[in-house]
Protein: sn-glycerol-3-phosphate ABC transporter ATP-binding protein UgpC
Organism: Macrococcus lamae
Amino acid sequence: MTTIKFDNVGKIYEDGYHAVENFNLEIQDNEFIVFVGPSGCGKSTTLRMLAGLEDISEGTIAIDDQVVNNVTPKNRDIAMVFQNYALYPHMTVYENMAFGLKLKKTPKAEIDRRVKEAAELLGITDLLKKKPKAMSGGQRQRVALGRAIVRQPKVFLMDEPLSNLDAKLRVQMRSEISKLQQRLGVTTVYVTHDQTEAMTMASRIVIMKKGVIQQIGAPKEVYDFP
Ligand code: ADP
Ligand code: ADP
């Protein structure tokens, strides 16, 4: 059970730019929230504040009723997947997926169990001994997803995870990610500039423009279907 609450959250960058203002949102357990809006509207900034990768200038963010403004990223129990995969090129898929758990001193047998289970779920079992260099974009993105889910985080964050994939693969991965989220039941926040992606994946959509929320609602409520 994980809930997230943004209370009047804002971001002012060091150069004085007010990138996010008055951001208010309550996320329920197991929701799939999508932030959507044009490039530069503050989606990534908001996600990064939730992840702890960016200081929160104004307001508070709480995870399970605990304010996390001063909690380090490591202690927020969040896993994040990026557009560029951010895999370690010199490590095998197995090592990439095991790395975070090793740092947390998880017992070897437990690491092995979780990595194999995640690999099975993502259909990448036969890639475990390969290095990311030799893999396609879709395969790399699955490994990045695997690396995130082995940690069994409270919150799952994705920032434009499909933007580097070709159109066909993007459509396929959309439904794979949706299924994965439903299967795991993990509270998820997903950032995209793609309305179709938002519509097909979200339980609720947050539409942003110039740093402020324009609308919040289920896909049917925020977009007119033909
Ligand atoms: P989005 O994810 O919606 O594309 P971002 O959150 O990346 O938008 O950026 C929001 C705005 O903040 C943009 O105008 C961007 O140029 C600006 N911005 C992002 N990072 C910084 C930074 N480190 N310093 C100053 N401005 C920034
Ligand atoms: P996005 O794909 O989210 O639009 P960008 O290309 O805008 O990403 O930003 C990439 C990186 O550059 C981010 O770390 C962001 O914080 C930083 N950045 C973006 N805009 C600015 C800016 N105006 N000043 C300083 N850093 C910025």
User: Anything to note?
Assistant: Residues 13, 15, 17, 19, 37, 39-45 surround adenosine-5'-diphosphate (ligand 1) (CB under 6 Å). The chain is about 35% helix and 25% strand. The radius of gyration is 17 Å.
